[in-house]
Design goal:
The structure is a homodimer. The first copy, chain A, is built from nine helices and ten strands. By secondary structure, chain A is of the alpha/beta class. Chain A folds into two domains: about 90 residues, 60s Ribosomal Protein L30, Chain: A; about 150 residues, SPOUT methyltransferase, trefoil knot domain (Alpha/beta knot). At the A-B interface, helix 6 and helix 9 of A face helix 6 and helix 9 of B.
């Protein structure tokens, strides 16, 4: 049984401000929990649907939780309604801790993806997953991006949330300027730039993507060493931002 | 005011079987309606939220509808609940006709995208939009893909639904075999193929993408002239299918 305090805590974690207050977020599904274990993420609590407490499916998770002293709650159908973040609860969920990061903690000279005002959770999650696939390790998010620890974002990262340094900027223009002082080159992707064919790979690069509706904010444009576009020859007006970012990542890796 | 018959008709169009029975689908939002006009799609009915009947925003649409003898219904808040497909109605929607297509109607020798069991509406919509961007004109859908005239798919195509030949296969294996008889070469994208670097562009090509969870169905694999993968060096297990398709399309165009 879940105490009201616990139910309230899980509900709070569906709001950004509490996720940062507690430095915790929610993951759902066996695969996400396996990923968390594999990546030595710190799980503080595991919830399993009561009816599935004996199922073989979650046996390994329960054993591992016992070994690592992680409390496991078996939750009634009624209580699941209060803690689930999806319409169909996958039988298992957990609370995981995270460490907010800053640009100062990123010491390696690796290329950085900058996202300016990406609001769609699915797009952000897909960009994190794609960046992980292509071996990027750092994403810098402007102040008005959707929170990467939002449950929808987490879900669409398909586990890549555990592999990526996610930095929430409080002043993206200042942060990109700082990176340029550190000899990074900045490349922006817009509708009317040069063909990305000419884009060369380099470790000290910043790749900036803006929102589909507004593009990159004006204050960032003068910081770019070059503006590039993905050539198209059809009738579509634009590409989805996660798709554009994927094509660029493929090109520069 | 909307008659019950009209309300029922619009509600029916939210189901696949009725969309094909009537050869009609629903579009929502000013932009989609502008796109439909631009692409000489046949609009049979336009709905505008009563409160916005005098707004400048829809003035041009109303004028054009009058000129083309398309009935415009001004709909009360109460009735909108019955006809809207999104939680926030954008003030305007319409019924558009479509012509189901078959492989036989495709006469040009153009590359064809084949989608096998793509169930996610957002992914299908994004693939249609991306294909349109890169100048592809034909997509062949296996029998168990989500219907491209589903309202969520239509929305995420961002108007590209009007530019693409969408063919619903009733036997995808047979259809791909038929294309091969017509001297097309088939390329499948799997987790363990050759590097797509080696993929060459050619007009008579079929590019086959499977679902993220199950990949390309086994019966299609022997029909492929080559199996290819997008090289990754990070920790992600896989790429989103719309992202994979985009990278491949960029590569072969």
């Amino acid at each position: 049984m879940l105490t009201n305090t616990m139910k309230q805590h899980v509900t709070k974690l569906q709001q950004k401000k509490y996720r940062y207050e507690f430095q915790e977020f929610i993951i759902e599904g066996k695969k996400a929990i396996d990923e968390a274990f594999q990546n030595t993420a710190k799980l503080t609590t595991i919830f399993i649907q009561e009816e599935k407490s004996e199922s073989e499916e979650f046996d390994q998770v329960i054993q591992r939780a016992k070994k690592e002293h992680i409390p496991v709650y078996f939750v009634s159908k009624k209580d699941i309604k209060d803690i689930k973040t999806t319409s169909t609860y996958p039988g298992i969920s957990a609370i995981v801790t995270f460490q907010p990061q800053t640009l100062a903690t990123i010491t390696q000279n690796t290329p950085i993806i900058v996202l300016d005002s990406i609001n769609d959770p699915g797009n952000l999650g897909t960009i994190i997953r794609t960046a992980d696939w292509f071996g990027f390790t750092t994403i810098l998010l402007s102040e008005n991006c959707v929170d990467p620890y939002n449950e929808k974002v987490v879900r669409s990262t398909m586990g890549s949330i555990f592999h990526m340094n996610l930095i929430q900027s409080t002043n993206i223009v200042q942060d990109v300027a700082l990176l340029k002082q550190k000899k990074y080159k900045a490349y922006g992707f817009t509708m009317k730039g040069k063909n990305i064919k000419g884009l060369k790979k380099s470790k000290k690069s910043v790749y900036i993507f803006g929102s589909e509706s507004h593009g990159i904010q004006e204050d960032l444009l003068p910081l770019c060493n070059g503006l590039y576009s993905i050539p198209g020859k059809g009738k579509a007006e634009s590409l989805n931002v996660a798709v554009s970012a994927a094509v660029v990542m493929y090109k520069v890796v």
